[in-house]
Amino acid sequence: MKQKKEKRITLRVTPEQYETIQAKAETAQMSTGAYVRAAALRHRVVVIDGLREFTHELKGIGRNINQLVVLANMGKIREVRLGETMEALGRIYHQLRELTEQEHR
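Predicted structure:
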């Protein structure tokens, strides 16, 4: 459940600090407010380079599966072989594990 944010904190920073915070928030794919809250509350903010490519590939696989489901529900196809899809998902999983393990070193 989302908590209502009722209190406001005003923070003054230099233009350089502002640009740095904005860039870090963008890299983390977070809003500036969410990034500052996470940093201020000592949450660890982890940025994994290359994650956008994984997201793109996973979205493509998801779209293809959704199209297959629609065709199956329409009765246009009866059987789907997802062996290659499972292999692709396995590769993505292993690459993602490698990226996260590098982050923890």
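Summary: Helices lie at 15-27, 32-40, 51-73, 83-103.
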